[in-house]
Amino acid sequence: MTAARAEIRSSADRVRQALAALGHEPEIREFGATTRTSADAAAAIGCTVAQIAKSLVFRAVGTNRAVLIIASGANRVDEARVSAAIGDRIAKADATFVRDKTGFAIGGVAPVGHTETPIIVIDEDLFQHGEIWAAAGTPNAVFRLSPEALAAMTGGRVIAVK
To answer: How many domains does the chain contain in total?
Structure first.
């Protein structure tokens, strides 16, 4: 196994373990093609783009903490609105920051299993769906859950993000 493949497997295993510790043992679906974008994931799964719980990582400027916004794949995040909600200005995070703070590569950031606890914000629009799909630690792995389970397992604050 290559070092890159071992790292990907380790990320997926970390997500499985974190979910199990929270009492949630979903089927993690892995695809041959990437599910890195919301459109890619929806096409692979066979759901709507709005059912994709996309993970966007920003940097809280004042505290340098990761801010994980779990948004509907159909929505664009209003950074000013999220900044006001968390009481700190957010800025785009580069790939190194994302990996250092979450332990995941961009495109595979799961809602759980981070190396450092992020500030978590959940898009209220996800609650329009009975089931949603979130990244499972790699750019080609996802798992199904309810929006209520997402909020319970992450402790994320539910707000309007668009």
So the answer is: 1
Rounded to a whole number of angstroms, the distance between the first and last alpha carbons of the chain is 42
Please report, for the domain that includes residue 137, its CATH number.
3.90.960.10
Beta pairing partners, 60: 90
The parent domain of residue 114 ranges over 3-159
129: helix, strand or coil: coil
Please indicate, yes or no, whether the overall pTM of this predicted structure exceeds 0.85: yes
The per-residue pLDDT for range 93-132, each reduced to its tens digit, is 999 999 999 999 998 999 999 999 999 999 999 999 999 9
Please answer whether residues 67 and 100 qualify as being in contact, where contact means their C-beta atoms are separated by less than 8 angstroms.
no
Q: What are the residues whose beta carbons fall under 8 Å from the beta carbon of 97, sequence distance 6 or more?
A: 57, 59, 66
Answer yes or no: are the C-beta atoms of 150 and 144 closer than 8 Å.
no
| Other CB atoms within 10 Å distance of the CB of residue 84 | 12
- Give the separation between CA 41 and CA 24, rounded to whole angstroms: 21
Bridge partners, residue 28, by sequence: 143
**45-69 tens-digit pLDDT:** 999 999 999 999 999 999 999 999 9
Q: Please tell me whether residue 116 adopts helix, strand or coil conformation.
A: coil
